[in-house]
Amino acid sequence: MSEHSLEHELRWHTSYWPLLLSVGILFLAPLAFTFYFVYNKPFLAIVSLGVGAPLTLISIAGWVKEGMEDIHGYGEGLSVWAMPFFIVAEALLFVGFFAAYWVMRLSAPVWPPAGTPEMPLLVPIVMTIILVSSSITIHIGEKRLEEGDNSGFLTWLGVTLVLGILFLAFSAFEWTELFHEGFNFKTNAYSTAFFSITGFHASHVLVGVGIFLCVLLPALAGRTNVAFVRSASMYWHFVDIVWFFVVSQIYFW
Asked: What separation in angstroms does the CA of 208 have from each of 42, 64, 161, 214?
């Protein structure tokens, strides 16, 4: 192994971003949920989210930036092969959420429980169209990049970002409307499942948007790692597929 290769190998494996990301996720999910639902400490839950959310996004940005600037390509193959393993792990988390929902749904004498307002159907349909469109746009952008059309890639990546942010905006709008109707996390079993599953999915969309931003900024300066773009695209398609389960089970069943 050459001296430069050894130096790169050491730099890649001693990155501190994965550790910071793990700490961010710890504050973002387990601690925040535990404070709110187990110990009934909403203020501590908010503080935990306030620490975890920015730390998670900053860690993702730093980690992706580190890989995007890997101009020699020693780490390129790792991201493409590692992403499927990550997706499988995340898919199993969603399976846990859905399994709990199915048990409640099938064992309840009446569903939805009392206190559940009439759920909007137009909003999830629009959100589905937005997310499917974003999968198409990132696929087109990936193809443009492979063809050497950096300008076309930037255009389609920008469109994908806008669609992802629009999806999150619709999610925030829907949650706000439901809160105004008195439908919140603790209204009944359905509300807990609804906000947990849709919120968990929205957090994955937020991460995807963050990854695309981390791809966009170096790309504007002419530094684009094709392997990272493929990995980001793969992750986004996974988020899109999961949404079909969310919308079919939570809204239309």
From this structure: 27, 12, 9, 10
